[in-house]
């Protein structure tokens, strides 16, 4: 048993101790080929004999088969699927091909895997050992990475090995990693002496250890390839030594010494991904190779033959396969295609036929298309993309080839590989597609721009969607309508950064087209276009009709998720907070129901922004925590991470580095081409400057925002501009803002809008009229959800009362404002209220930290959900963690808050 250095041994000892104690631990063992990662994995599995141990190894030839490795890992517990919630059980069953059903979302499969492993640990701790993760199929790798980021208090151990310098395994980035390096010199010399039977010259030994850099596999195999005279120092060692990147060539040299039958047998074995002895024997027989041809390779310890075939090291397999000629590889694949007869292995048979094909072959390509369909039904879109891409290569007809490339790109995008989808789209000759294909290609290109998060990516989307609309317009009205909706949504997101077109141009097209029927999509498009071209008054009735239909709860989940972004954008612009909140909650529920984590992430972020605008900052924090957890499960760039930090929330919270955070978010949004997000960062600055009393700066930024007022996008900044300009003694600017606010708030008619209008009127009113306006604003806003604006109204009223020398009345208003700001967690506004109180002659103490403030964000989120009546499994599904982790955190919450039951949480939270 080889444990390696003290550092590695200690880390793995700690991992096992934590697992035995009921906590979960994850470690990625990273290192070069032969460095000892598998030996460490063997050692930790052996030391965990008292635990349940699951093992699986990635196989390069199996990487194209969806969920293959995950299925092999979980086979012992597929009988426990009944313990899972119905949606999760169905997702995992379909992914493994155990049942038929709609293709499952891969994130729902991930959550099901986490739930299954957590259920297994109810019977005792569990260790999962995964070797050669660089060769796992994409779906299995993503699921295991998801699980690794979410285990905490289940007693689950995950030890994964990955070879450095191989294919991208970005899914593992950020996980605890232990770099496995060569053995120390003393240990390396000990290992070398243990494998050399005869005389070993000390200088030769030192040369071998130095050249191999302590790589155990290189030491073992190099020593066995040297002669007794070389080891004894009587003959010079070969130069260069077969180590490092040359180790594979060393294995190939060994293989070439074998007889032709043995080499052929080894090639067939290396080509069969499962190590299936029956298939290898049958295929080798097709080539005239008897089973005993494997004997020499076994004696050389390159391979072991039992119920399945195992190679000494993955490098042996790759050396054999890579060292064969293309003709020899095709013969092996063809023989295996004929030998692979089980119905369940039809996809592998199709793949072998494809690998054996020398030129385009429609029958082989068609078989791959069928295999791609089977993969899609299991939710294996990465495998579907692989099958279709190869099918396209083998397709004789140019137009059919273009169509299959497009289908492959769509599958790659669905699998979460937008970069691969982008490359496949580049391989398509657009003129070979019909109008529907052209439009589909353009819409997919637009989605890859968004998903890749590249420089100015979003800025290119509106024009791309508009071009797709042009292709669809005469052939498919439904697709044309969806493309136009995509163009509008993208233009609202990109705003002033849009390239190649603009919202006004798109709006003109919307209003010029003659819709055959008034669908929900048509209503939303017309509402936004009318607001853009004709103004607020004409648009509001249309927007109300459209958003009411979205909020009514009559849409299917897919229809709701198609329309919710436009609906919340429209409702935001007319100050309809109730409709916006209803739509956002329905969208989040629909995304959870379907396992659509990308959509859930964006809907929860939008809901967090909604809560922030209302001043419900703690709820916004809980939502942002969920968003952060989801961010770690989906692909994102550093700029996308920055953009999702809610700069408006930062403005309200006003930490010491608030400006730096807001500036980073602004830079990220501009780089991505997301003008609306850049606008959010500027709104964050306005809030921050108002809280700190820098009214001139707030007025400047607010004025700049309104200069870029895309179809009423910054209507909600008008009350802030009135306040900032008034306090900066720029009554002309304040008056202009009030005039526009009066028009829009009156048309909107919602209590939130009317209350803010009264507050803004009070700021500019004569002393005889201001008191009535302030009281009207407070009366109107009090029943609304806008607690932040109500607190600010009390503050402004108190400040006005103090300037009127009504100190007693001012103190009452300012105390109310101070208490509200402290309750919602807006320290800079609270300090502004406190300073005003001091100016009235009253001392206001800062509120001390409360017990609830000691909770971590995750503990707070769990506590709130428990307070609201959700069970542990329901909280686990909501936060994408396990029920065991919920229980662990909830026990800590009870201790911190001094409560004994969930019923008592309402009293202290």
Give a short synopsis of this structure.
With 909 residues, the chain is mainly alpha-helical.
Structure description:
This protein is mainly alpha-helical and 909 residues long. Among the domains are: 6-179, P-loop containing nucleotide triphosphate hydrolases (Rossmann fold, 3-Layer(aba) Sandwich); 185-241, no CATH class; 252-341, no CATH class; 380-575, Serine Threonine Protein Phosphatase 5, Tetratricopeptide repeat, CATH 1.25.40; 852-908, Winged helix-like DNA-binding domain superfamily/Winged helix DNA-binding domain (Arc Repressor Mutant, subunit A), CATH 1.10.10. The chain has 47 helices and 7 strands. The strands form 2 sheets. The protein has a 5-stranded parallel sheet, with helices on both faces. It has a two-stranded antiparallel ribbon with strand order 6-7. Helix 12 packs across helix 13. It comes from Actinoplanes xinjiangensis. Residues 848-909 form the HTH luxR-type domain. One of its GO terms (biological process) is regulation of DNA-templated transcription. GO terms for molecular function: adenylate cyclase activity; ATP binding; DNA binding.
List keywords for this structure.
909 residues, mainly alpha, Rossmann fold, two-stranded antiparallel ribbon, globular
């Amino acid at each position: 048993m080889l444990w390696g250095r003290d550092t590695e041994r200690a880390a793995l000892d700690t991992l096992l101790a934590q697992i035995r104690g009921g906590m979960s631990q994850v470690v990625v063992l990273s290192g070069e080929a032969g460095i000892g990662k598998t030996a460490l994995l063997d050692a930790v599995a052996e030391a965990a004999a008292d635990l349940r141990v699951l093992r699986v190894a990635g196989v390069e030839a199996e990487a194209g088969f969806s969920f293959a490795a995950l299925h092999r890992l979980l086979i012992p517990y597929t009988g426990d699927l009944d313990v899972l919630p119905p949606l999760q059980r169905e997702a995992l069953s379909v992914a493994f091909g155990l049942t038929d059903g709609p293709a499952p979302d891969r994130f729902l499969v991930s959550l099901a895997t986490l739930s299954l492993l957590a259920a297994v640990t109810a019977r005792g701790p569990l260790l999962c050992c995964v070797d050669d993760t660089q060769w796992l199929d994409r779906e299995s790798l993503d699921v295991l990475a998801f699980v690794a980021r979410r285990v905490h208090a289940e007693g689950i151990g995950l030890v994964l090995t990955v070879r450095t310098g191989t294919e991208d395994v970005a899914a593992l980035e950020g996980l605890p990693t232990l770099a496995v390096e060569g053995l120390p010199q003393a240990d390396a010399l000990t290992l070398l002496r243990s494998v050399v039977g005869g005389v070993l010259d000390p200088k030769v030994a030192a040369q071998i250890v130095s050249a191999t850099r302590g790589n155990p596999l290189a030491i073992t195999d190099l020593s066995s390839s040297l002669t007794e005279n070389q080891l004894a120092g009587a003959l010079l060692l070969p130069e260069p030594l077969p180590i490092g990147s040359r180790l594979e060539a060393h294995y190939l040299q060994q293989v070439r010494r074998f007889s032709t039958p043995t080499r052929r047998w080894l090639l067939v074995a290396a080509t069969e991904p499962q190590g299936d002895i029956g298939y290898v024997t049958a295929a080798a027989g097709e080539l005239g190779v008897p089973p005993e041809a494997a004997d020499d390779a076994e004696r050389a310890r390159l391979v072991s033959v039992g119920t399945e075939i195992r190679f000494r090291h993955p490098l042996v397999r790759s050396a054999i396969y890579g060292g064969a000629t293309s003709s020899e590889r095709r013969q092996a694949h063809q023989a295996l295609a004929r030998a692979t007869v089980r119905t369940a292995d039809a996809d592998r048979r199709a793949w072998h036929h494809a690998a054996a094909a020398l030129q385009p072959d429609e029958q082989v390509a068609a078989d791959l298309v069928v295999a791609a369909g089977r993969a899609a039904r299991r939710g294996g879109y990465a495998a579907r993309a692989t099958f279709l891409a190869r099918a396209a290569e083998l397709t004789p007809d140019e137009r059919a080839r273009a169509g299959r490339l497009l289908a492959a790109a769509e599958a790659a995008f669905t699998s979460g590989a937008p970069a691969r989808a982008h490359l496949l789209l580049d391989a398509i000759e657009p003129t070979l597609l019909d109008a529907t294909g052209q439009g589909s290609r353009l819409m997919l290109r637009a989605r890859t721009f968004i998903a890749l998060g590249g420089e100015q990516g979003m800025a290119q989307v509106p024009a791309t969607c508009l071009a797709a609309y042009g292709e669809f317009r005469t052939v498919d009205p439904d697709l044309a309508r969806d493309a136009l909706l995509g163009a509008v949504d993208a233009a609202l997101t990109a705003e002033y950064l849009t390239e190649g077109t603009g919202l006004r141009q798109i709006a003109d097209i919307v209003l010029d087209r003659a819709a055959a029927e008034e669908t929900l999509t048509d209503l939303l498009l017309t509402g936004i276009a009318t607001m853009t071209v004709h103004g607020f008054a004409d648009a509001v009735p249309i927007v109300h009709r459209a958003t009411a239909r979205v909020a009514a709860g009559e849409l299917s989940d897919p229809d709701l998720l198609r329309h919710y972004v436009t609906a919340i954008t429209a409702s935001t612009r007319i100050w309809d907070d109730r409709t916006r909140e209803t739509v956002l909650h329905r969208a989040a529920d629909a995304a959870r129901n379907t396992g659509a984590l990308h959509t859930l992430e964006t809907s929860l972020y939008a809901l967090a922004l909604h809560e922030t605008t209302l001043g419900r900052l703690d709820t916004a924090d809980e939502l942002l925590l969920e968003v952060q957890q989801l961010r770690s499960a989906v692909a994102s760039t550093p700029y996308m991470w920055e953009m999702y930090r809610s700069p408006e929330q930062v403005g309200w919270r006003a930490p010491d580095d608030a400006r730096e955070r807001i500036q980073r978010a602004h830079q990220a949004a501009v780089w991505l081409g997301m003008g609306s997000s850049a606008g959010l960062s500027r709104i964050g600055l306005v809030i921050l400057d108002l809280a700190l009393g820098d009214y001139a700066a707030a007025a400047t930024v607010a004025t700049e925002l309104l200069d870029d007022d895309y179809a009423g996008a910054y209507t909600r900044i008008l009350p802030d501009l009135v306040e900032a300009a008034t306090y900066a003694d720029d009554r002309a600017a304040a008056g202009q803002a009030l005039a526009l606010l009066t028009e829009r708030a009156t048309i909107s008619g919602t209590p939130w809008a009317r209350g803010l209008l009264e507050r803004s009127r009070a700021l500019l009113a004569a002393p005889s009229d201001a008191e009535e306006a302030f009281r009207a604003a407070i009366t109107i806003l009090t029943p609304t959800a806008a607690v932040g604006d109500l607190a600010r109204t009390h503050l402004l009223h108190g400040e006005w009362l103090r300037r009127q020398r009504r100190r007693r009345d001012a103190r009452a208003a300012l105390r109310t404002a101070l208490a509200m700001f402290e309750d919602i967690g807006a320290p800079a506004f609270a300090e502004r209220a406190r300073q005003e109180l001091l100016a009235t002659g009253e001392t206001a103490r800062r509120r001390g930290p409360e017990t609830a403030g000691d909770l971590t964000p995750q503990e707070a989120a769990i506590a709130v959900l428990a307070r609201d009546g959700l069970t542990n499994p329901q909280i686990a599904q909501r936060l994408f963690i396990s029920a065991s982790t919920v229980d662990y955190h909830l026990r800590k919450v009870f201790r911190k808050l001094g409560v004994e039951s969930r019923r008592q949480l309402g009293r202290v939270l």
